[in-house]
Amino acid sequence: MEVSRMRKWSLLCLAVPAVMMTSNVTQADTLITAGIGLGNGEFEVTSINETSLVNRFDVPIYIPERPRVMYDIYQYGAPNDLADFTTITDGVGVVIDGWTVYRTFADAGNGAFGIDGLYGFDDPDAPGGQAFTNAGEVAVVSDAYAVAGSAGDVFDVSYLAGSDQSTSADFRTFLVFDDTTITELTGASATNLGGTDRTSGGPNELSDSLTATAPYSTVRLMILMGADPPVGRALVDNVQLDVTLNPGSLDGDLDNDGFVGISDLNLILGAWNLNVPPAPAAADPSGDAFVGIADLNIVLGNWNAGTPPPAAAVPEPASLCLLGLGGLAALRRR
Fold first, then answer.
1. Which of 2, 153, 213, 232 could link 165 by a cystine bridge, Cβ 3.0 to 4.6 Å?
2. Within its chain, how far is the Cα of 147 from the centroid?
3. Is the pTM value of this prediction over 0.85?
4. Of 244, 279, 295, which residue sits at a domain end?
């Protein structure tokens, strides 16, 4: 029994260095801004050097403030499969500052697509630039953002959508979790959306919220937009994506105070080596009906995540290690 206890306290000390590598998780964050900043939701382009082509392509075309990519539509394969994200990212595309615009399919007309700054579908107080397609469909895909979130996190999406004419275009909006799970935000999707209204909150601003249903490590925003000749160009601009983490869903937040810290550790240590019940279910985040190493590692693996409660003391990892060493020394003296 004494050896068993010594091993457990040793494991506590050995597990602590992982805490030192875990950064704090904010309760709310803007992943993509509508202005020129993080995520570059304005798609500003002033030089061809700001863009690059991915996968196979023909010849890029550049006019001042109009970098874009042309592709021979008759050489392109089948439409994308939303059950497999690689069917989108394998396509030809143009990259600019946090985004890639992929051709998904085109069956007629001018095959130009990418980023353009001359169509006028932008906030008059912000630099010009839009993602566009002349014909067929493209996927406007953001870079992957590391969030390390959980079920219950809420994502808010908004963007301007429409055409450079009074005719219409189609739009669908998705969040892509861990580059595997694609979930649609139906409220931020529209068919036959026409006009060039640029008013925030107006008829051409699409928005929706989505609540994550499972833990995830990364998230992307993806907008599918399509236009058919002679509709004109489908355009996307002023994209914004915010996430609010669910405090009670943080892994390791056993007392649901929105922070993984000493109070959560104390719940586990206070019920150490007990079955559930009599130990409280909150002390068993692993769900194996026993309070032990598996539960401890969940807390330590997400240490300091969330927002500390007012006046909460956040112990340094070294303090926890000393706690483990102190317990080990006490066991040895017995």
1. 232
2. 6
3. no
4. 244
Task: Classify burial at 244, counting beta carbons within 10 Å of its beta carbon; exposed 0-12, middle 13-18, buried 19 or more.
Answer: middle
Q: Which of 208, 228, 244 is the last residue of a domain?
A: 244
Contact present, 39 and 32 (Cβ < 8 Å): yes
What size, in residues, is the chain? 334
What is the Rg, in whole angstroms, of the alpha carbon atoms belonging to the chain? 25
- Residues linked to residue 163 through DSSP beta bridges, in sequence order: 234
pLDDT at 285: 83
The backbone torsions φ and ψ at residue 90, rounded to the nearest 5 degrees and listed phi first, read -80, -10
- Pair (89, 181) in one structural domain: yes
Structure tokens at 185: 């935000």
Tell me 312's DSSP state.
Answer: -
**CA–CA separation, 81 vs 88, rounded Å?**
8
Determine the Cα–Cα distance for residues 192 and 161; give it in Å rounded to an integer: 11
**Domain span including residue 253:** 2-24+247-333
Dihedral angle of Cα 160, 215, 314, 270, to the nearest 10 degrees: 150
Whether 141 contacts 99, CB under 8 Å: yes
How far from 107 is each of 157, 169, 223, 228, 322, CA to CA, in Å? 30, 15, 19, 9, 67
Q: Splitting the chain (334 residues) into consecutive groups of 10 residues, what average pLDDT does each group show?
A: 38 30 50 75 75 76 71 60 87 86 78 74 64 87 86 91 80 95 94 76 90 89 84 83 77 81 92 87 83 93 83 52 41 39
Token output for 304: 């300091």
The answer on 328 and 205 residing in a single domain is no
Amino acid code (one letter) for 173 = T
Report the distance separating Cα 241 and Cα 34, nearest Å.
Answer: 9
Q: Do both 300 and 318 map to the same domain?
A: yes
Q: How far is 79 from 34, CA to CA, in rounded Å? A: 29
